[in-house]
Amino acid sequence: MTTYSGTKEFEGATFVKASFKGATLRFSDVSGVTMRSVDVDGLDIDSHDLFFGSLFVNGVDVVPLVDAELNRQFPGRELAKAQTPEGLREGWVAVQSAWQTTVADTPPDLVDAHVEDEWSLAQTLRHLILATDAWLRGGILRTQQPFHEIGQIFTGADEMGFDMSIFRVDPPVYEEILAVRAERQR
What we know:
Layout: E1 56-57, E2 60-61, H1 63-73, H2 85-105, H3 121-140, H4 174-184
Antiparallel strand pairs: 1-2
Helix pairs in contact: 3-4
């Protein structure tokens, strides 16, 4: 299978009777793409940016529908949009509770398992350590070097020029990840 990376050759292109069956797009900009008379059976979209824009299916913006369904599936998720300190505190409690359940209920043999090329639970927890360090220790506390060495930065950061020397090359053991994450949650 051919891999296209870092290309803009398809911007503004028109595809007619082309097959993208089984194709995977990752970290790609598909904003403004128009699809007409296309077979979308099994189309699977996962985007953390979805809720900052619109997605039209047959003329209907489905973002509010997806947002409502995810809020139904994950009670407390709606608190991420809280506008008051009390609401934000309530949201923080809900998030912490959900993570405690996830960590407690995950069998030890699955903490390093990957599903559909996504990060494992251990990697996700390492990324949460990094995010906490970036936003709280770096952004708010202004710590000179806020990052813990086991934090996990996003895929492709080294190609974008980020200094990777502060991060450990060998993955830490799960118990260390849990300990650092717990410390960051205090």
